Backbone:
């Protein structure tokens, strides 16, 4: 069973065990889930990790992967001019979706690069006068890691804690801003728990205190309205593959008035106004642009559909499964992200039983480790609940049947796992687990 | 037959050819919804909606061919069989 990484043995497995694993005989009825999962490709419910490429975006890309192979930076022939024209159309489509001017859009390889560029670029450019950065504990790893890198370069970083609903405390942010603060970086929609930070208030505060404000809006783009002027953001990281576009491309919005200056991370031919050297992957840029154009057309329909499915799923789960906790603020959230904790269930067993649906226990970056997510720990989720959390991502292409199927599977397997859990039995008898003294030698 | 009715039928026919379960279901849902939304349009607005629909039909025809060239594996939502342990082993 090598292909399924979750079953990968740590030590050598005796041959007799391997034989039993591949046998059709069920050795322990009641415990085994052998033969209970359906055949076929798992239903995809992990839209925060990535989204499928919309056929409309693919259709726009294909001509540029065939005859239109010019280098968009070539100035001496029509191959280059045509490719450049296509890139500029895409730049306009992206700018339109966030209420910016096309000249403020810099293409990058994705939101990770955009986040690196913003944090490191601003910090390095203003290093002679500023020495302080502010971010939150629930940011994406690439922002946190960039901040760590800047600490090594002599910057001080404040990692703001979040409240138990996942939102930052505005008063705390206000008191954290210092005269030498260069940048505040707060993500708009959290990738793990889906809560929406008060971006507008943060933007107004940063503008009043004359601090640059960067926001990672990869999870917000195309799902909720973004207007960079209303929100007063100076830098915005965007990603294509979260809006049904191709992977490998993203963008950074860099405000021109008042101007934000960055030190480029890449040195080279000076493309993208010198901020990001390197030949643009014009077919990916076109796909990203087309995906943004589709998102602009479909935003209302998508929001209605995702909201409907999300409510249907949450209502059905809470009605059929007791002791479920929704992580993060119940209202200030993007409905397509449901991060649920199932108490008294062993998380890994549950994920294995849910083989027919593709879900994750948190972000894809950290799902390989057995450590509970740092985002859930930051919002104060108890370790046992953090271990049993599952993130459901609903999107444009999710069907109602898939949602119902997922709910059925969950209800069945949570009940099955609880029925064999001694903890669940104790809870049913009315024992408060916190009062139990588990070890005999504790004095 | 009215041009809108013909376009509607053609769009649904092409949508059904998509091999990916999710794209197919979406295209059918989106086509029905789009026509329901625009049912009351007349004159210039109706012509604009029809032109948009024709572009979408051309796109859908190309994508339907592509999806048959690289067919998606059937989704768990389309199958009604259960995986046996030995079948699972063979697949890996």
Residues:
């Amino acid at each position: 069973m090598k292909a399924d990484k979750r079953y990968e043995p740590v030590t050598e497995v005796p041959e007799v065990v391997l034989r039993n694993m591949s046998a059709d005989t069920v050795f322990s009825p009641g415990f085994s889930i052998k033969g209970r999962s359906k055949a076929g490709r798992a239903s995809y419910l992990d839209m925060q990790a990535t989204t499928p490429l919309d056929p409309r975006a693919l259709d726009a890309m294909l001509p540029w992967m065939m005859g239109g192979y010019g280098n968009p930076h070539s100035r001496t022939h029509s191959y280059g001019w045509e490719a450049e024209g296509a890139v500029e159309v895409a730049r306009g489509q992206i700018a339109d979706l966030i209420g910016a001017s096309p000249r403020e859009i810099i293409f990058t390889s994705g939101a990770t690069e955009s986040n690196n560029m913003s944090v490191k670029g601003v910090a390095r450019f203003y290093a002679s006068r500023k020495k302080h950065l502010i971010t939150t504990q629930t940011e994406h790893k690439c922002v946190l890691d960039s901040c760590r890198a800047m600490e090594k370069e002599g910057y001080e970083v404040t990692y703001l804690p979040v409240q138990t609903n996942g939102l930052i405390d505005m008063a705390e942010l206000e008191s954290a801003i210092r005269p030498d603060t260069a940048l505040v970086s707060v993500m708009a929609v959290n990738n793990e728990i889906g809560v929406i930070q008060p971006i507008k208030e943060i933007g107004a505060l940063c503008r009043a205190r004359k601090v640059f404000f960067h926001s990672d809006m990869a999870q917000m783009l195309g799902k909720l309205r973004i207007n960079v002027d209303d929100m007063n953001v100076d830098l915005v990281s965007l990603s294509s593959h979260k809006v049904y576009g191709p992977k490998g491309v993203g963008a950074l919005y860099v405000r021109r008035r008042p101007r934000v200056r960055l030190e480029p991370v890449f040195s080279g031919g000076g493309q993208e106004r010198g901020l990001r050297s390197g030949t643009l992957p014009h077919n990916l840029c076109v796909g990203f642009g087309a995906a943004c154009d589709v998102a602009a057309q479909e935003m209302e329909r998508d929001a209605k559909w995702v909201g409907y499915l999300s409510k249907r799923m949450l209502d059905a789960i809470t009605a059929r499964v007791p002791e479920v906790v929704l992580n993060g603020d119940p209202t200030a959230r993007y409905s397509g992200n449901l991060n649920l904790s199932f108490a008294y269930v062993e998380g890994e067993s549950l994920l294995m039983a849910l083989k027919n649906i593709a879900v994750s226990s948190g972000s894809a970056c950290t799902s390989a480790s057995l450590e509970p997510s740092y985002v859930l720990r930051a919002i104060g989720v108890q370790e046992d609940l953090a271990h049993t959390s599952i993130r459901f991502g609903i999107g444009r292409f999710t069907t109602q049947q898939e949602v119902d199927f997922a709910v059925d599977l969950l209800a069945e397997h949570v009940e099955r796992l609880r029925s064999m859990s001694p903890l669940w039995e104790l809870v049913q008898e009315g024992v408060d687990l916190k009062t139990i003294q588990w070890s005999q030698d504790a004095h | 037959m009215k041009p809108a009715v013909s376009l509607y039928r053609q769009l649904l026919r092409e949508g059904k050819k998509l091999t990916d379960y999710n794209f197919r279901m979406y295209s059918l849902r989106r086509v029905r919804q789009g026509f329901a939304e625009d049912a009351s349009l007349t004159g210039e607005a109706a012509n604009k909606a029809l032109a948009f629909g024709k572009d979408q039909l051309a796109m859908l025809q190309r994508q339907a061919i592509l999806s048959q060239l690289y067919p998606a594996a059937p989704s768990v939502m389309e199958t009604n069989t259960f995986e046996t342990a030995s079948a699972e082993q063979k697949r890996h």
